[in-house]
Design brief:
By secondary structure, the chain is an all-alpha fold. The chain is built from five helices and no strands. It has one domain: lambda repressor-like DNA-binding domains (434 Repressor (Amino-terminal Domain), Orthogonal Bundle), CATH 1.10.260. Helix 1 packs across helix 3 and helix 2 crosses helix 4. The protein is globular, with a radius of gyration of 10 Å. The protein starts with a helix and ends with a helix. The relative contact order is 0.21.
Amino acid sequence: MKTLGAQIKERRKALKITQQELADLAGISINTVVAAERGQGDPKISTYLSICNVLGLKLTAIL
């Protein structure tokens, strides 16, 4: 099973969205996107929800 970060990165690339574009659309910093994709840091659930909303993913489905 892929990690949450790996799923986010895979979906972002499939949509041809850069990390900066994802950050801008989700209203978060690029450093937060990078950390989320790497599984680093301690992002809030609201951060993951913002990312998933932009990517058209359901957080509950990928957890």
